[in-house]
Amino acid sequence: MRILMVEDDPGLCEAVSFQLEQKGVTVDVCHDGEDGLHWARQQAYDLILLDRMLPGLDGLSVLRSLRQEGIVTPVVLVTALGEISQRVEGLDAGADDYLVKPFAAEELMARIRAMSRRPRQWESSQIIRLGDVVFDREQKTLEKEGQSCTLSRRESELMEMLLKNPGQILPRGLLLSRVWGPEAEVEEGNLDNYIHFLRRRLRSVGSALEIRTVRGVGYQLEVPHV
Question: What are the C-alpha distances in Å from 204 to residues 65, 78, 148, 180?
Fold first, then answer.
């Protein structure tokens, strides 16, 4: 899981990032509204933690812009403004949840778990079944009829993207942003290498799934009809 935290308090960012990373969550942090809007537009995140009071562009403006642009990434507003009218305003602007500062790390994790159970764009189960394979997101294992292999973290994130979007052509830029992060300095050749690794993983368990290269665009996971 990858989360974007838009918050201008460096101490809070450090504390929350540490707690989330201990749970296996990847956290990207930015400190003002304009950067937050830019990063959120990459649609590389499972969830956005968005402070309401930010330098430059405030959190509600960021949120409204995202929703107007059709970006539906779940957003939790994190703010010191806790009056009922302020909560209602935030939810009406498009927030999925509202967390008032100060908050306990346990409450934040509980909110994230609750969001993950919602039938939106998040996969509610750690198990993904497609074609002839079963992928365990938590254990990072790929299995077919008793044959299994373990994937690295990067391989797992890339495999998850492909399995969740069978038949769709996934642009290279989207895959790089989603797996490496929107601001990561990574050569595109790294993506090609990891696709090669995943093809080997699929062959090693005897799967009929195929990752097709769409020249000049990206990759597509093909699921043969039985």
Answer: 45, 45, 8, 25
